[in-house]
Write a structure and sequence with these properties.
membrane; DUF8107; about 70 residues; DUF8107 domain-containing protein; mainly alpha
Length: about 70
C-alpha cells in the first residue's frame, strides 16, 4: 500500500505556486460584501441610524467591496 504522506511535499509546492483565479476572488468578495453590508445596515437599523433598503445595502456593500480591493492589492 502506498504511503499517504509520500506526496505531501509535492502538494504543498503546488499550493504555494498557485496564484488562483482572480474572478473567483472577485465573486467571493462581492458576495461577502453584500452579506456584511446587509448585516451592518440591519444593525444600524436596530439602533435607529438608517432604514433597511436595497439602496442602502448596495451602497454599504460597494464601499466594503472597494475597501477590500484597495487593502488587498500588493
Amino acid at each position: 500500500m502506498a504511503d499517504p504522506d509520500a506526496d505531501r511535499d509535492g502538494f504543498r509546492e503546488g499550493l504555494e505556486s498557485s496564484k488562483g483565479d482572480p474572478r473567483v476572488l472577485l465573486v467571493l468578495n462581492a458576495v461577502l460584501s453584500l452579506l456584511f453590508g446587509w448585516m451592518i445596515v440591519a444593525g444600524a437599523a436596530v439602533v435607529g441610524l438608517v432604514e433597511v433598503s436595497l439602496t442602502t445595502v448596495v451602497a454599504v456593500a460597494a464601499g466594503l467591496f472597494v475597501l477590500t480591493l484597495v487593502m488587498t492589492r500588493p
